[in-house]
Amino acid sequence: MSEPEPPRESGSRDLTPPPAPSELLGEALGQAARRAGLDPAAEASTGRVVWHAMGGFRGVLESVLPSLAFLVVYTFWPEPLWLSLVASVGLAAVFTILRFAQRSTPAAALGGLIAAAVAAALALLTGQGEQNFLPGLITNVVYGTAILVSALVGWSIIGLAGGFLMGEGTAWREDRRKRRVYFWLAIAWAALFYARLAVQLPLYFAGDVQVLGAAKLIMGLPLFAPLVAVTWLTVRSLYPRGDSADRA
């Protein structure tokens, strides 16, 4: 007759340590990158990956048209200011409604609508067209600083995203080559955001709305897309073909 099992202690706790904040952040970033089309398991050309990361044709329109509408209307009809703002917010609202109507992911369009509405409110409250660009400038400060600090402290945000995207978590920090590459990729992304600030902040303080609007469009997707391509190709080059699939 077998001996009875000893009674289990009531209220026993799971001794598995909780995931570190870096792991949680890296996993979230990796999942976000995969949703944006940066999936190493998918055999796709770099151009297709970049196009997917921009949201495709609809994503490009959602990113460009509201700002372009504001710029065009403001150039020809600077007064009253609300005409330009209605054109911008109205287009953002149309894109969001279409997303909901087609039951597609509305996050990007909804975020664009909220940003456009906040920017329009600032411009209306102050009566200054350049205030329409203030949220975008603040976003560049936040993103650029966060990425730069992450690189300087040895926890590159690009590395966290790339590590979980490629299936190795934070193990890349033990590899000197990967750590160096992720450091410089983070520096490149921070430089993009700070370059926007270097060009656009003087225009903002000068109140040159038309040139500021044009600069925002030129330094938007036309700079974002090549850097996504460089980042994608560089990260893929760090891992042998099929290596990430073995880790997944």
Describe the overall structure.
This protein has 248 residues and is an all-alpha fold. It has one domain (24-31, 44-247). 71% of the residues lie in helices and 0% in strands. The protein has 11 helices and no strands. The chain has helices at 21-35, 46-53, 56-76, 81-101, 107-126, 134-152, 157-165, 176-206, 209-218, 221-237, 243-247. The longest helix has 31 residues, at 176-206. It is globular, with a radius of gyration of 23 Å.
- Beta-strand portion reads under 5%
Regarding quaternary structure, what we see is single chain
Label the overall shape. globular
Please tell me the overall pLDDT: 84
User: Biggest sheet: strands, sense, closure?
Assistant: none
> Helicity level, as a percent range?
over 70%
Coarse structural class: mainly alpha
SSE topology string: HHHHHHHHHHH
Spans with pLDDT under 50 lasting ≥5 residues?
A: none
- The first-to-last residue Cα distance is 46 Å
InterPro entries: UCP010219
Keywords: Membrane, Transmembrane, Transmembrane helix
What does the secondary structure layout of this molecule look like, with pairings?
Elements: H1 21-35, H2 46-53, H3 56-76, H4 81-101, H5 107-126, H6 134-152, H7 157-165, H8 176-206, H9 209-218, H10 221-237, H11 243-247
